[in-house]
Amino acid sequence: MSKVKKKVKVIKIDLDKCNGCRACEVICSAFHATPKYSNNNPARSRIRVIHDPLRDIYLPVYAGEYTAAECMGRDKYVIDGKEYSECDFCRASCPSRDVFKEPDSGLPLKCDMCEDDPAQEKPLCVQWCLNDALVYEETEVEEEEKKEVKQEDVEIGLESMIDKYGMQKVLETVARMTKKS
Ligand code: SF4
Ligand code: SF4
After folding, report:
1. Distance from the CA of 112 to the center of ligand 2, in angstroms?
2. Low-confidence ranges of the chain (pLDDT < 50)
3. DSSP line for 32-67
4. Taking a C-beta distance cutoff of 8 angstroms, is the pair 62, 25 a contact?
5. Is 22 left (phi over 0), alpha (psi -120 to 50) or beta?
């Protein structure tokens, strides 16, 4: 199978440099407001800063994929003498936390690297972080090219299933799967 090159965009986070100013939350929520820049509300930001000033903890995390189920992650990490929970580092919009959810609708929020109109040279949270705690990086990775699914291949597959199990069984299975999704 042939390989294709894919651009991967990441924001590298340097915890030692973050002072919890939350400028990243402000600009992210303002950029994604409708209309743009009409308001800012950190609860709508796709980057959140977990902060605990008494323990000198400032941990920016940007939103990743939505997950429908809680995980079993309850571990604790001690880094430079500061204790973090596993959840602190998690980027998922998940049922057990209020972060990365649109406050009015509850819909999950996900970082889009500010790939919106107008296009940004760098993600806005990175541009607004005056302490350089957020650093934007682009790398190229090689991955296997996904094979295009041809309609005739699907039909051949279905015909063989029908031959083997019968039309009724195939239809019942599809109906059951459709209900689940
Ligand atoms: S803008 Fe930078 S320093 Fe301020 S909270 Fe966000 S990551 Fe931390
Ligand atoms: S890259 Fe853009 S969308 Fe993602 S967290 Fe930063 S400001 Fe928000």
Report:
1. 6
2. 180
3. TSSSTTS---GGG-SEEEEEEGGGTEEEEEE---B-
4. no
5. left
CA dist., res. 19 & res. 129, Å (int): 10
Nearest protein CA to atom 4 of ligand 1, as residue: 21
Query: What three-state secondary structure class fits 174?
Result: helix
| Nearest residue to 13 (alpha-carbon basis) of 108, 131, 114 | 131
- Ligand 1 proximity of 49 Cβ (cutoff 6 Å): yes
DSSP 3-state assignment of 96? coil
Q: Which CATH number fits domain 3-144: 2.20.28, 3.30.70, 3.30.565, 3.30.1380?
A: 3.30.70
Single pTM value for the model: 0.78
Residue ranges per structural domain of the chain = 3-144, 151-180
